[in-house]
Amino acid sequence: MLKFLIIICGFVYTFKELYENSKRVASGLLDMGIKRQDVVAINLRTCPEWLYITFGSMMAAAIPFSVSFTYKDGSDLIALMEQLKTCPCLVLDPGFENETWNIVSQLLDSHSSNGSVRSKKLQSLQFLLCHDQQNALSDVKTLGELLNSRPEAKLPEIHEDDIAALFQTSGSTGVPKIVANSHRSLLMITNMDTTIYSIDDIYLNDRPFGWMGGFPLGLFIGKR
What we know:
This protein is α/β, with parallel strands linked by helices. The protein is about 30% helix and about 20% strand. It is built from 7 helices and 11 strands. Strand 6 and strand 7 form a beta hairpin.
């Protein structure tokens, strides 16, 4: 029996763990109120939770999208959310000394421990989840809580032409563009890549998970 392993920052995870935790996150997202083809914006470091929320979003028929923002006034996040138009959920790494949280929190009118938020500046935003590995924030729903809760939401059927994920281009023209990929298109890309790998090969992903070249192609290569 083959056993695929994922090694992240020296810790080893099986594909079974990835599947079970992603499924648990998917059920939690649906229970929270995420609907089919809702965009889930993800601002996380490369970590196991990034995989769980990304694949969990896909399993919930939602659309994961890795985002980044740097301006302290949050203007680049506001512009990105306006471009997305309908992005009800943001998953956030609070950052070193809560620097990222400080950017986002100033844009919120209210937030709650059940994950609900309101913001006039981020009008489509309804839910906020925070990574809690190193930062404990009050009145904020965490990814750990989502993983530990066990809702019984039924996972929806996924169609091959549903949008699987959004990616940003490199921004060589000055402003990054948002590119959509369906489940069908991602599998077509990885079917071409699998021809050069054997089952015994070790696949090294040297890029952040949010970069198209590293994710999701690296994980999909192991699907056989």
